[in-house]
C-alpha cells in the first residue's frame, strides 16, 4: 500500500487532457478572437478557468493541503494569492490611495489558507470580486499602449503580466492536484 495516488484523467477522447472537449469550458466559443486586446483577454479567461478546474471536486482539507516542506503553497493558497495579486494590480494603475492587502503581511495569503469551508468560500468570493474589479478598471482603458499609474505601466504590459501570473500558477496547480488525488491533464 502506498500514499501516492494513482494518476488518472477524466478525459476519454484525449487522455492527456483534463476533461473531454465537450466538457471543457475553455475555448468553447469557436475560433479564437480577432485583435490583440481580445486575444489577451481570451488567454486570461482560459487560465482563470484552468485554475478553477484544477480546484474542482476537492474538499477544504484537500484544497488547503501543502505541497512539500518548507513550501506553504496549496491550491487554496493560490486562489487567495491571485485574489491578492488582482487587487495589487489595481494599485499599479491608480494614482490614488493604495488598496490594503486582503490577507495581511508576507505570505498571509498562503499561511491563512486553512482547510475550512468558510475560508474556501471566502477565497472564491474574494477572487471573483477582485478579478471583476480589475477587469472593470482596465475596461476603461482599451488602448493597449496607454500608460497608467505612477509608474506609467502600459495596459498591454499589465495584461501580459496577468496572463503570466495565472499561467505560472496553473503549472503549480497541476502538480498540487496530482499530489492530492492523482488527476492529471492540461
From TrEMBL:
It comes from the Bacteria. InterPro entries: DinB/YfiT-like, MST-like. Residues 15-35 are annotated as: Disordered. This is Putative damage-inducible protein DinB. It comes from Allobranchiibius huperziae.
